[in-house]
Design goal:
This protein is of the alpha/beta class. The chain folds into 2 domains: 6-324, Aldolase class I (TIM Barrel, Alpha-Beta Barrel); 329-395, 2-Layer Sandwich (Alpha-Beta Plaits). 34% of the residues lie in helices and 21% in strands. It is built from 14 helices and 20 strands. The strands form 6 sheets. The protein has an 8-stranded parallel barrel with strand order 3-4-7-8-9-10-15-16, surrounded by 8 helices. A 4-stranded antiparallel beta sheet has the order 5-6-14-11, with no helix packed on it. Helix 4 (123-135) runs parallel beside helix 6. It is globular and about 80 Å long. The mean pLDDT is 94. The structure holds flavin mononucleotide. Flavin mononucleotide binds next to strand 14, strand 16 and helix 10.
Length: 396
């Protein structure tokens, strides 16, 4: 059986599957449920000292929407949008530390890692909460620079991640005061994610989580009103390509260890995040939707894949796909691919003719024909309802 253990920013994890900082890690009982599934670690719910945000946690709102943006009632669709507005841990700092201490003790006995998460309201409180979490025994700290719910004066949430100067100062100050590795959790709403991560890396961040959620808005057109009364953190399986791009670009440009978050829902997604450079993968929404048991399924799926493919260790797949992700300039040098229509399966529906925006599929004797004008984009083969279009031969 393949070895699932990974090293992430100097800390050994028995496997790369983590439970994200969120409602599924809201208290000891919640973290215990994750740890009991055998995952590598849990990231405790973010702690803040901003009262307004602590109060907001008493008024959470969440909607799970289907492909038509209607509230899901019953069977969970494969593609969904989860939009929510919650807040942070509502306990006092002392109470929260007792929860962390208990979780750390429970996790240690099961070879799992507890990571503390911080969302301070001022420079001082970011550092103070970090110090308290370290004293409570966490193995790492995650600084939540990516929360979609913004705090006062831009000192909390997405604005911290977007304000390179403040983020750098905060990482430097925290680094001086704590010795456990620091992970910066970024917002996906950065104009240049590589540049922003580069700055916090230089300032001393030991790792980065890519990413927290987008801020979104979902509307109920029957009522002409938003779900959850306003904007909220928005995600779901459809986010995965954006996260893959972020992980890939950062992994290519920088040596900083990466934890993938945002849009992973099963073991295949976990492997995708790892193949572009993540050392660990976090799950949140999918666990909220399908339950903690999903984590065991993810571990089993990952193991079975690695065994089937003959990998000795999961470390081998980290970043393995990046060499195949070509730059635009490299793509231009590739040989053209050509496509052909299988006449026996073609039902002459014309979908391919309509879908070829390069005008390369023409009607000939009432059947579509791919002409020499084909540029090899392959879109027609996706559109054909009979799978009657396939790649033919390569030309120069
Ligand atoms: C209800 C809810 C609460 C969340 N709370 C936090 C939080 O306290 N701290 C944090 O860093 N991220 C928080 N997140 C973000 C998640 O940790 C995670 O990064 C995000 O949902 C994307 O991952 P996913 O696609 O696996 O859900 C929250 C997400 C949800 C849905």
């Amino acid at each position: 059986m393949a070895d699932l253990s990974v090293e992430f920013a100097g800390i050994k994890f028995k496997n790369p599957v983590l439970l994200s900082s969120a409602e599924p890690t809201f208290n000891f009982e919640a973290m215990k449920k994750g740890i009991d599934q055998g995952i590598g670690g849990v990231i405790a719910k973010s702690f803040t000292d901003v009262e307004a945000l602590q109060e907001l946690v008493n008024k959470p709102e969440m909607s799970l929407l289907d492909e038509d943006h209607q509230v899901v009632r019953g069977k969970i669709p494969g593609m969904y949008t989860h939009i929510s507005r919650t807040a942070f841990a509502k306990e006092s700092l002392d109470e929260w530390m007792r929860i962390i201490e208990k979780s750390v003790a429970y996790a240690r006995e099961r070879d799992a890692v507890v990571i503390g998460s911080v969302a301070g309201g001022s420079m001082d409180s970011w550092v103070n909460i970090s110090k308290r979490l370290e004293a409570a025994g966490v193995s790492m700290l995650e600084l939540n620079f990516g929360c979609p719910h913004y705090g006062p004066a831009g000192t909390l949430g997405g604005p911290v991640g977007q304000n390179d100067k403040f983020a750098v100062e905060l990482v430097r100050n925290t680094k001086k005061q704590v010795s456990v590795p620091i992970i910066v959790k970024e917002t996906p709403q950065l104009s240049n994610i590589v540049a922003s991560v580069g700055k916090v890396y230089e300032a001393g961040a030991d790792a980065v989580t890519l990413t927290n959620r987008f801020l979104g808005l979902a509307l109920n057109i029957e009522e002409g009103k938003p779900y959850i009364h306003g904007v909220g953190g928005c995600g779901g399986p459809w986010v995965k390509p954006f996260t893959l791009r972020a992980i890939h670009q950062v992994a290519r440009a920088l040596a900083i260890p990466i934890s993938g978050s945002n849009g992973a829902t099963d073991w295949k997604d976990a492997l995708e995040f790892m193949m572009v450079g993540a050392s660990t993968v976090q799950f949140c929404t999918a666990v909220m939707v399908h339950g903690y048991g999903l984590l065991t399924e993810i571990l089993n799926g990952m193991s079975a894949y690695l065994d089937r493919k003959g990998y000795g260790t999961v470390q081998e797949i980290i970043g393995a796909a990046n060499q195949h992700v070509l730059a635009y300039s490299e793509v231009a040098q590739l040989a053209k691919e050509r496509y052909q229509i299988d006449e026996e399966n073609c039902i002459q529906c014309g979908a391919c003719v309509e879908a070829c925006f390069y005008g390369a599929i023409a009607w000939e004797d009432e059947s579509p024909r791919i002409t020499d004008a084909c540029l090899g984009c392959s879109f027609c083969s996706s559109i054909c309802p009979e799978s009657a279009i396939s790649q033919s031969k390569k030309t120069g």
